[in-house]
Each structure stands twice: as C-alpha cells, then as structure tokens.
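Worked example 4.2. Below are the chains of a multi-component assembly; read each line carefully before continuing.
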Amino acid sequence: MKKILCGVDMGGTKCAVALVSGQGIIMDKIQGCAHVDLDDDGRVEMVVDQIRELLTRNQLEENILAGIGVGCAGHIRFREGIILTTSNLTGFKNYPLRERFQQHFSIPVIVDNDTNAQALGEFMYGAGRGYRDMIFITISTGIGAGIIMDGKLYRGQTGTAGEFGHTIVDPESELVCTCGNRGCLMACACGRALPHLFRRKMKRGMTSTLDFPPAFNMDKISGQVLKKGLDIGDPVSMEVISDSARYVGIGLYNLFQVMNPPLFVLGGGLTHWGDYYLSRIKETFYELARDMIFDPVEIRLSEIIDDAGVIGAAALPQEQGI
Amino acid sequence: MKKILCGVDMGGTKCAVALVSGQGIIMDKIQGCAHVDLDDDGRVEMVVDQIRELLTRNQLEENILAGIGVGCAGHIRFREGIILTTSNLTGFKNYPLRERFQQHFSIPVIVDNDTNAQALGEFMYGAGRGYRDMIFITISTGIGAGIIMDGKLYRGQTGTAGEFGHTIVDPESELVCTCGNRGCLMACACGRALPHLFRRKMKRGMTSTLDFPPAFNMDKISGQVLKKGLDIGDPVSMEVISDSARYVGIGLYNLFQVMNPPLFVLGGGLTHWGDYYLSRIKETFYELARDMIFDPVEIRLSEIIDDAGVIGAAALPQEQGI
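Applying the procedure described above to all two chains together yields the following structure tokens:
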C-alpha cells in the first residue's frame, strides 16, 4: 500500500514541498522563496527538482507516492488544474499547472486552491478531526474559505467556491478591495487593509502609543505591528483589531445562515492576535446568531499552524479518492 | 411502481395539499386558509383529512403513494421533522410535525422547509432542469434560499441552511429585521420592508404619483401597490424596487463567491415586478462579479409560479431516495 504523500504549497512569498506520512506528519521538507522571481515554467521545474531531491535523499522511488497534491494561491479551475488568476503571485494566468507537473510524473497530480488545501489539512489532521462538515477561514494578507461538506471539499462549478473574502459586508464602506469592489470583507478586515484602517483611526483624531521610528512608512503597518500595539495596550491597534473582528464575525454569521455548519476553524496570520481577536469574533457571531442556533456551532483556531497548507495539499489525491 | 406523489405546502396564509404525478403535474388539489386559525394538532388533522379526501375522490389507496412530503414555513430540524420556529405562522414551536403526520400513514412522511420544497420543485420540473447544482431564492414577504448540490438539497447541520434572508448586507443600516438584527437582506429588500422603505423615501422629500385614498395606511404598501407604481412610473415605487434589487444583487453576488453555483432561480411575489426588477438584480450581480466569473452563471425567474411549493414538497420523498 502506498502510504507516502507529497504536498506542494505555493504561496505569494513561500513555497514548501514536503513528503508527508499517511498520518499527516511531515517526513521531509524543502522550503524557500526562490519561486517568486521565476517564470511559470521555471517554478514547475524548481518544484519537480525539489520533489526528486526529497525522494533521492530519503531513498524512495516515485511510485511509493500515492500522488502529488499542489495548493496554489489564486482562482483555480479545479477539474483541469488550471490557474486562472493569482492574487499574491505574479504570472500564472490561465496556466495549466496540473498538466505541466503531470508531464514529469506517472503518479496523479491534483492542483487546488491553497486555502482548500489548508482546510483539508485541518479537517483530516487538525481542528476538524471528528467532523464531517466544517468551514475553514484563513485571515491573513487576504481572506478566504475552504468548505468541507460530507467529508469532501466543496468547490462549486469552476472550483472557486469559498471566495469568502470577496463577499460584501458593508456596501456603503469607503474601503475598496483589490478586486475593485467596495466593502468586501477583505477590504474591511484583512492584513492588506491594516495600513488604511490604522491611518483612518489616526485621521479621526486617535493617537497611537506605538513608538514608530521617524519617517516610518505607515504602509508597513502589519499584523505583527498591531500585535505589538495590542501587547502595550495601544488604543489604535486595539480598535483596528476589534473592527476586523467585528467584520469577520459578521462574515461567519452570514456563512452560518447560508450553510449551517457545525464548525468554523480560523487560521492565517491575523489569528496570532490571539484571544483578544478570537473572543471579539465570537462575541459578534453569537450575538447575531443568538436564538437562531439550534445545534452547537464551534469557532476554533487552527491546530496545524505553519504546515496546514503543505500537509493538506499532500492529502488532495486522497480526497479525490486516489 | 408507485408513481403518485403527495405534497403539502403549509405557508403563512395558504395551505395546499395535492396529488402530483411523477412528472410533477398536479392531478388534484385542495387549497385553503383554514389552517391559520387552527391549533397545531388541528392543522395536522385537517391535512390528514384532505389527503384522505383526495385519495377517495380519485379512487386511490394510500399505498399507491410513494410517500408524503410536507413543506412548512420556518426553521425545521430536518432529520426529526420537527418545526423549531415558524416565521409567518403562529404556533408550531418545537412541534414534531413529521411524527404527528406519520402516526396516520404507513407510507413515509418527510418534512422540510417550504423554500427547500420550492427549490426542489424548480430543480426537478422547472427552471433548474438539466442542472446538478442551483440556488433557488424566494423574494416574498421574507427572503430565503434552497440550495441544491449534486442533485440533492443541502440542509446543513440542523436543516436550517439557506437562511439567506438573514445574511447581513448592510451592518450600518437603520433597517431592523424581524430577527432583531440590523441590515439583514430581509430588512433591506423583502415584502415586509416595503412600507418602511417607501416611507423613508417620502421623508427624504420624494413625492409619489400613486393615488392613495385619504387616510391610506402606509403599512399596506405591498408588492402589488409598488407594481402599480411601477406601471405608472411613480418615482418612489421605482426607487424602492431599485434599492431592493441592488441588495438582492449583492446577496446573490455573496452567494456566488461562497458557493460558485452555475444557476440562480428567483421566485416569490416580488419577482412579479418583472423585468424592471430582474434586470437591476442582474446588473448589480454582474457588475460586482465581472472578471471573477469564469464559467457562465445564469440568473432566471422560476417557471412553476404558483405551485412550486406543493409540487416540490411532493418530490421530497424521492429526493430522500424513497
């Protein structure tokens, strides 16, 4: 029985390639950022070389692998494994990623969205164990969801289901998303929105107690900066974090009304804001849902913090019944 | 082979009981409003009598029926067939409707939400034929959705999935929903919101060209009244209809981003506003979705105008594999 899985997690900054056991444990991994500056085909070649290197240095043959699962940031046409567009990575427009990988291997290659891969990782080996249905939400540079229904990823017609960050939660908002629309959840709550949200609080007369160096570029306000602010009790940081939590809470509530899942798992960089953030998300959610909840609905943090993407990607062939 | 189906559609004003052919054609029907004033058990007895009457007058035995499907307005715990709460009907709080019906019949009884039943009707015999996935939206006194995935209704954990009318589309709105939350789609766009929406336009200085009788109670502003307004070009009616269309369009867009379906079917009383309404819903949807649509997404009006509820209810046992 083929028990070894291989996962690739290609994101906007980091690319990880790993051999993963059938229990979801990373056996060996190569990780780097070199893919960012390569062209489309160059990225494929790099990853193929890394998979071969992992096999060689672990004295394994290709056919010990059940398959190769690739998670990639962007809109993916799932059945064909084509990257339609990417959000945080240049290149890869209408790029047949699965086919290009497949040319190098005799075992099946599956390509999916990176958030779907993370969702699958949490579902199989993390916070979702024991459930048949869950919704995974990543709150990071952007916001996205991976929907598990009856033990399988729900992908929709094209494969782009779960683009939760583009749902509009405040149509009258002045905040504009990268997609061009106004008041998307992403525009109101994600990592990319933080500089704008912070500056807006300052413009409205709030004073931050964060000790910025002179000529600090406010565009560098990030989740980490606000975490520092939270630790020292900076009122601006705390309000921005609360506002983000409120919008995420509204978004979860909307998902709850439409899909009625038993579990939400939250991951992504901004969840490092910890309990201050999570408790406010929950507060908004349960306040809105109140007497419309008839069975327990859990909101939990992800358990596989750093490697959910690559572990989940490795599980994609399994999820497809391979 | 049992080819005759039996459906019950119990709504806030009307209760229909029908024998339906395997092709979704109504063979005989009893319809009335008497259930509104009966108590919970009285409603069951009335419907049981009507089913027996339909069988008798068509010279049929109970066992010719494949099963009985009941659609009822409200939150339903699907597996047990318990009505948790109702929206437009008094009584029926934690009422074991399925069990009470089942006591009277040896054939299986299935109880579901009325919007789910309508969705199933449209899916099997109406605007959804030929699809495997679709989302049905009813825009009427309230707003709700029925989600069909891979040829089956998606109900979620409890059975309350599709409560689309309670998704929040404008959290800063002054409009409060029957659920108590602010800025639900229902609060902004459904039949129940029309008097408030109309009055608000007047307060802001608009003048209606509708010829209201003296001392007309503005609470009676309904879909029909606005239809008249639309026909004579009343600017207030037209703006209220446009506003409703915009919010419904945003709601559909949000569903699209989360679920990526190929088809939306719109039904319910407010769709009688016709092309003026539908074209504005579509305009908002396609403007927001633009280059994020990679496969055709259709928005259509329902085809089974009056009887989708009872025809769809009749198909519930089939959908459950009975």
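Take a moment to check your reading of the output against the notes. The first helix of chain A runs from residue 40 to 57. The longest strand of chain A covers residues 65-72.
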